[in-house]
User: What shape does this take?
Amino acid sequence: MTTHPSIEQHPDLAEMRSRFERATTTPRAQAVETLALLTGLFLAASPWIVGFNGLTTLAVCNLITGVAYALCMGGFGSAYERTHAMAWAAIAIGAWTIIAPWVVSGNVNTTRSVVSNIIVGCVALLLGLAMAGLAGGRTMGTARSRKGPGPDMAPMR
Assistant: This one.
């Protein structure tokens, strides 16, 4: 009877975890996470900060999407390998924030609400793209090291 080691011992899994850990411990990743958390909190409080809290549907929409964005982007530092796919949800939230003044019910597209949502939505979208790309840029180097040296590189001895 043959016993197989658990999936936790697989070398690709260990390499992936170390890559994700390296990606989240960089100053860039920490800055993106901090800015994203602040963006989500500002989005949630923006109706009261900018002054369109009388527009109830947009105020509630921004509150909900701001909290959701902060939760999506806030867990990256501690558990990136399990939450990096949430960056794509954060990108969708950023896009929604941009179009929300025209989509939610009621007449809520005032100058304050439109300008605030477009600026915060663009920032949220860019931060989500930055977080989604953190590990993507590192995969090429790890794939090459697994394949071995390219045709123009002699093996090191």
User: Anything to note?
Assistant: Helices lie at 11-24, 27-51, 56-74, 76-83, 86-103, 111-136, 139-147. Residues 61 and 147 are 48 Å apart (CA to CA). The radius of gyration is 21 Å. The mean pLDDT is 76.
